[in-house]
Automatic annotation (TrEMBL), chains A, B, C:
Keyword Iron-sulfur recorded: yes
InterPro entries for the chain: Cholesterol_7-desaturase, Rieske_2Fe-2S, Rieske_2Fe-2S_sf, VanA_C_cat
Metal-binding among keywords: yes
Keyword tags: 2Fe-2S, Dioxygenase, Iron, Iron-sulfur, Metal-binding, Oxidoreductase
GO terms of molecular function: 2 iron, 2 sulfur cluster binding; dioxygenase activity; metal ion binding
Species name: Aminobacter anthyllidis
Name recorded for this polypeptide: Aromatic ring-hydroxylating dioxygenase subunit alpha
Pfam families: Rieske, VanA_C
Domain Rieske, first and last residues per copy: 8-110
Length: 338, 338, 338
């Protein structure tokens, strides 16, 4: 399965990249990440060109990785810096791929494509995650399903009514508002519940259980599969700023064709200093994403096996519009890169 | 691997089908079974046509299954009865397969073939299992081997001498009597031990250890792979009715090409009210079928891998006659359906 | 993957072959080994030609194996000696392969090739293992990697510096001396450390930690993949006989394309009667081969998947010379047998 090359992938939370080497497969490429002594991020191919042993099994010494097997050394540029054997000559072919990585929004972003196109400005805006007015908690889960099945999930939030007891409303599934002027790069999926009582989630966040309000779930999708949910609840007909907002980031990164790295974060502009609430939100996120979404999405992947979902002619509902559009944008970019 | 379509498959014991949905794969098709409020059996495709999530993960409400993911609803005919989203229109393609099932002999029988040929009268006679003069115990095991390897096992009962200590006789393997007038639909495999001391099984059932008798094992095979063993022991030269009879049913249903649902039952017309004997028989059945036959048959499947047994040119003995004939009947029916 | 036919494979340690049947796959062929009543080694195909059940599941009675399933009997020549059913006739096709095995150096050697070429004299010299002047300890490990990846490992002992703390020297990797007059059947890989302090291994064996000496690691490779390491340490410039010698045998036998039987032995001509030292050497061997080499070699196999190593164009260092030559000899022999 091809993946878009000229786009930024969320490779890791910044805090995951330390002086301990991190082996991670991104879009079928095996990569070892580590923090350089100067504090930057090194990302090189996780395979020694000599005998193909994974480099992350070796030792990190300064900015240099020494292969576990015969001690060849590589620097962050992928160049071999030492052959400790025989005449010590370094063969011309003794080098590994090096990857461009930038850090932004507490995420290490990886670029597979053409170097001259690697513009940091192309990273979708997730400044909410580092906005000092917000308190952000974040986590990671691994899903045995292709990344597009997860973005399908996030672009059709009507599923919350069925899968997530915490997000269920007595008045049934949310209202879906089809997008009017779709762009070529972004997709919006807007679900709302005007004038309803709060679900258990908003009650937990402090919205009075006996008070109606306007509840919004506006999801923004960007390539390759980065989603930001503007979710909040406010008094009926009142401006958004008055109510609770808890924007949630979902960064989906293909590991392989059929597995995905799922980074998520919840940011809030209220009760920022309450550690107990932060812990509760992490607990809720795990309950919802790990324990409720993941089993269903993985069952779906097993059901479709290695087929591409759209090739199986799924029945389409109105609420599938955004997910279908996101897939079309991916297809168009893949087509353009061919 | 193709399976016969116009035949009845044992899908489940009737008692397995309840208000709790039962997901079971039959002949490579994923099916969800449940009991309707009126007491019938519903059997529909276990895959929502919208996003392909297994329906058994959802909820059963009355006779309606609600998909776990986005709440589409299906009735026992496979029709979609509710789309809770957007304009609520039900797409024409929103339906799942429904399967014809009848209950007979405490078994739910499933028909894959042409509807007009689904004649209940074609189900092989297993009335022994519901005959009030008999007490019947039943069980189920799952075998990682193709169903024909198991019917081969049951059609050559000479294996009892080697695999099953309880069925072993001091005088060696049983006498095999080749079939004289074979039919096109049934196979008989008759093994007998005239004038011998009882094996441990008949001793357990009450036949005196020091008394010779005539022991019979007459196996009847019907399509697709339903076997009834007339097994009993009586005094030398005495009529069958005088002795012990414990007819045993073996219903083999392909799950996939290489795995099988194995339903078995033992019926007896003596000591019917002895609960301890019923429990002992279940224990013996598990010891014999699960612990002795199954490992050998699974080792056989591993040895032949995905090959068809006959394509490997096995050495054939006289006692293989019935198994070979059963395979030919299956092949002929498959050929006819092509 | 083809394997050389006209060569001797180490099938088992002699002590492994007893009256208990041993099932072992060698070069993709499933074989059952057992000791005959006369004390010889029988090796026959581990698959009954009747229903393909592995023969090792059956019973050994005298020199005869009785199949677990229907009691066909086979002798060490592979001939069927009994059909206990029906007319008792033995079908002409009822026979299994029999393999030529000889015992030498406490090893059972198996020959796949042409019978008339099966010359015991072709077995590479491992007389060290039965030399009464030496005390030999031996063991076995199973490796999930092709046998050539392991012989690569053993032919480039510079890896000891990186993988094995016990074999590491303060002065860096050993000196490698390229072979001058390579033969067509053997490969030598000579590594040495003249005038160095002993590593932990030699300290353990009794070489004084504060005394410099000459340390040699001379590896001899023979087909198909049999390696003998002449390893020892002696005073600087002193003759080998004065110092410690602990020649180590490594017999690599392909189980399948991607798995290997690894038999190893350490022989010593000093402190032969010290049981504690024998136990310590076995412990060291397990630490080094099982816990240090095996994970790296298996990671290498996973990295190259089912590819042939050389087809992936590995970077070659001077120290790879012997491994490359051994592979070429194998390729030439395979080519000649085609």
């Amino acid at each position: 399965m091809p993946f878009i090359r000229n786009t930024w992938y969320a490779a890791a939370w910044s805090k995951e990249i330390t002086r301990q080497m991190l082996a991670r497969t991104i879009a079928n490429e095996k990569i070892v990440f580590y923090r350089t002594e100067a504090g930057g991020v090194a990302a090189i191919e996780d395979r020694c060109p000599h005998r193909f042993v994974p480099l992350h099994l070796g030792r990190l010494e300064g900015d240099i990785v020494e292969c576990a097997y015969h001690g060849l050394c590589f620097d962050p540029s992928g160049a071999c810096t030492l052959n400790p054997h025989g005449d010590g000559k370094i063969p011309r072919a003794a080098r590994v791929k090096s990857y461009k990585v930038v850090e932004k929004y507490n995420v290490a972003w990886l670029w597979f494509g053409e170097a001259e196109l690697a513009d940091e400005g192309l990273i979708a805006d997730f400044s909410i995650m580092t906005d000092p007015r917000f308190c952000t908690v974040s986590s990671y889960l691994h899903v045995r399903a292709g990344y597009q099945l997860i973005s399908d999930n996030l672009l059709d939030l009507s599923h919350g009514q069925y899968i997530h007891p915490m997000f269920k409303n007595a008045e049934g599934p949310p209202h879906f508002e089809p997008e009017k002027n779709p762009s070529d790069n972004e997709v919006w999926a807007r679900f709302s519940r005007p004038n309803q009582y709060p679900n258990k989630y908003f009650q937990m966040l402090g919205y009075p259980a006996d008070q109606r309000g306007d509840h919004r779930n506006f999801m923004r999708w960007s390539t390759p599969s980065l989603l930001l949910l503007d979710v909040g609840m406010t008094g009926v007909g009142r401006p958004v700023e008055e109510g609770l907002s808890i924007p949630t980031s979902h960064l989906l990164t293909p590991e392989t064709d059929l597995t995905t790295h799922y980074f998520w974060a919840m940011s809030r502009d209220f009760r920022q200093d309450e550690v107990a609430l932060s812990e509760e939100l992490l607990r809720v996120g795990v309950a919802v994403f790990d324990d409720e979404d993941k089993p269903v999405i993985e069952a779906q992947q097993i059901a479709i096996d290695t087929s591409e979902l759209m090739a199986l002619n799924p029945v389409l509902l109105q609420t599938d519009g955004p997910a279908v559009r996101a897939r079309r944008i991916v297809d168009a970019k893949l087509q353009a890169e061919r």
